[in-house]
Amino acid sequence: MRKFHLLVINEWVKMVKKRSFVVPYLILLLFPQLLGYIIHSVSPGSFASAAGFTREMLLPTGMGQVMTILSIIGTAGIVAKEHSRGTIKFLLIRARSRTAILASKYVTVLLYVLSLTAVAAAGILLSGMIWFQTGGGDTGIADILLALLYGCIYSFVYVTLAFMLGVLTHSTGVAIGLSMFLLTIDKMVISRSFYKYFLFPNLDLSVYGSGQQPPMPGMTLGFSIAVLAVYMTVFLLAGFLVFRRRDVA
Amino acid sequence: MERTSVNQLQSDAAGDLPVLQMKSVTKMIKGKAIVNQLSFEIRKGEIVGLLGPNGAGKTTAIRLMTGLIRMTEGDVLVHGHSIRHDFRQAIAHIGAIIENPEFYSHMSGLDNLKQYVRMSDGIAESRIAEVVELVGLQNAMDKKVKAYSLGMRQRLGIAQALLHSPKLLILDEPTNGLDPAGIREMREYMRKIAEVEGISILISSHMLGEIEQICHQAVVIQNGTLVKVTRLGAQDSTENEVSLSVRVDNLAAAAAVIQAEEGVRLTGTDEQHSELIISLHDRKVPELVASFSAAKVGLYRITEHKQSLEDDFLKWTGGNRIA
């Protein structure tokens, strides 16, 4: 495990060397500026402060969703492309276990999400400071960090899903397509009590924050965290078990 | 086949392990045996050809050796380490190109090699320069791999396989898609690698001529089953009997000369080309030529009569078409 970080460096280098690498970062920096401008010109009073704007934008209902989409696009191919390009053969005939290789890829995916989140936060904060008052309002740094955390968790669940799909299907298209499809329908609510055990209603943890009603009766923050943990574990287990055992043709 | 070189006997006595041991390896896919009870060995410094008609299981066998696919039964030992139970120890002794060498084409050759350096233990910095020089890619290291020709990619593949100084190099159809100059170049690399670095090489190929030219041993498989293991190359046969094909103007007169000559046997006649196939001791050849001229038999040409690997191959595999 001592040399695990070298595997992560490998994966990171492969991503950075892509010419399109900076595009999602640019989007996350520039898009909030445009958004801030539009909101400011339509209704200047909608956000009391830059902090309030930042908090609201980072949530899965705001830029958090864009961040997730970009994360999925950026990482869905991390396993599937090795198969389609044939580079998986050179990758797997090294003195490293398949578990370590896949784990290094997953860690890289998480790091990528974190880096996107950091850039998005910076972009949003900048936009907030340009278009809204820097002081005032009742949103503090703790609120912003919490929103950042919720946005990250939302993205983590989706990239983990896309990661598993990439391992199982060897297809970047299926991994991106299916997870994007789920992303677009995840706000849908089916009013049956069994639905609270599904992934979707539990994805946005920010609903528990401000004394709002939970999406469905009987749901709590702890419940949602537990459900998310179970789903993530299943996704990862499925991915790792299949990757370890599968014949590479 | 009976020739086992003295070196090998000595290394056996020293308790040297074979570099690769296939032990009744079987791979079943959907109830069908793709590779069936395949066993053979590769010793140090040996170049071995893996031959077989299309679909014989050559690539499957190589994927089994490198752990890319799991075997149903049997085991592969690389330098004594099982690829099943001790994968990382075993694979550390193998360098391989399986089918086409595929690289990250958006990265430079050097960046690609660095990837594999980070994935192996104890590779010195200088090793990259060493292997790059061996395959002659010094001037292309900073170019992106997508700008490489197939021959260059093949060479980068060899560099990649040699980085961690393996004991066994596995090359799957290494001359596939190369032009004649590239094929010749590849052959020279393989010789150099086997001689200079003392690495054993396993080459799978359908190019029988290739195998015949550089391999010490050929392993022939068909339908996943071992058909034959044969030694190739008559390089140490000067002390032995040679088989010659002699073209003459008069077959009957020539046959009479041969009969009169002691230690010369007539093994065949090819009337169409007016040729006789004879077997004799190497040092009898000048005497025989003298006898021919004394008997006024016109001699057009003398060539060594080799049964080509192709003939053997077709015999062993029952004339199955090779592509």
UniProtKB/TrEMBL annotation, chain A:
UniProt entry tagged with the keyword Ion transport: no
Pfam family, one: ABC2_membrane_4
Keyword annotations from UniProtKB, A to Z: Membrane, Transmembrane, Transmembrane helix
Keyword Membrane: yes
Membrane spanning residue stretches: 21-42, 62-80, 106-132, 144-168, 175-195, 221-243
Protein name stated in the entry: ABC-2 type transport system permease protein
Taxonomic source organism: Paenibacillus typhae
Taxonomic lineage from the root: Bacteria, Bacillati, Bacillota, Bacilli, Bacillales
TrEMBL record, chain B:
InterPro entries: AAA+_ATPase, ABC_transporter-like_ATP-bd, ABC_transporter-like_CS, P-loop_NTPase
Keywords linked to the UniProt accession: ATP-binding, Nucleotide-binding, Transport
SMART domains the UniProt entry points to: AAA
Keyword ATP-binding included in the entry's annotation: yes
GO molecular function, one term: ATP hydrolysis activity
Domain ABC transporter: 20-248
Superkingdom, taxonomy of origin: Bacteria
PANTHER family, sorted: ABC TRANSPORTER, ATP-BINDING PROTEIN
Family listed: Belongs to the ABC transporter superfamily.
Name recorded for this polypeptide: ABC-2 type transport system ATP-binding protein
